[in-house]
Specification:
Elements (H helix, E strand, L loop, with lengths): L4 E6 L5 H12 L4 E6 L10 H9 L14 H4 L4 E4 L2 H10 L7 E3 L17 H21 L4
Parallel strand pairs: 1-2, 1-3, 3-4
Helix pairs in contact: 1-5, 2-5
Length: 146
């Protein structure tokens, strides 16, 4: 099956998933790539520190608005990527039909969880950004974008 759309999911949809979606979209410009949160801070923009670190890498998160993950949103995407194993359980419990298309964002990095930098130091945000970058590059390769 050809993947045409990817949804990146974390908790608040203000740090990891917007960054992951932006990185994946940059590498895969022909894909529809969006993000959502399982406990979204609906209506909020991207976290200031995450946005600043992303901007230093050439990504603009200014237009991001956090939204809540729903089964309806899940149904619109060919692939759903959660940032932690626990997210996968919540995603598939809220959207059982998505279980066959839900994987870890860190799937190709030893199936690793990517920690939440929310309210943590700038240095921790930078480490998380690097992990997300590596995971996004791995997915871009698997999806045939690079």
């Amino acid at each position: 099956m050809k993947i045409n759309s990817v949804l990146v999911v974390c908790v608040g949809n203000i740090c990891r998933s917007p960054v992951g979606a932006a990185l994946l979209a940059r590498s895969c410009p022909d894909l529809r790539v969006e993000s959502a949160g399982i406990g979204a801070l609906e209506g909020h923009g991207a976290d200031k520190t995450s946005a600043e670190i992303a901007a230093a890498d050439g990504l603009n998160l200014d237009s991001h608005i956090a939204r809540q993950f729903t089964a309806e949103i899940a149904s619109e995407f060919d692939l759903i990527l959660g940032l932690e194993k626990g997210h996968l359980r919540v995603i598939t419990s809220k959207a059982p039909a998505s279980s066959g298309k839900t994987l870890l964002f860190g799937q190709w990095l030893n199936q690793s969880d990517i920690a939440d930098p929310y309210r943590k130091s700038r240095e921790f945000h930078a480490l998380v950004f690097d992990e997300i970058s590596k995971a996004a590059e791995s997915w871009a390769k698997k999806l045939g974008c690079i």
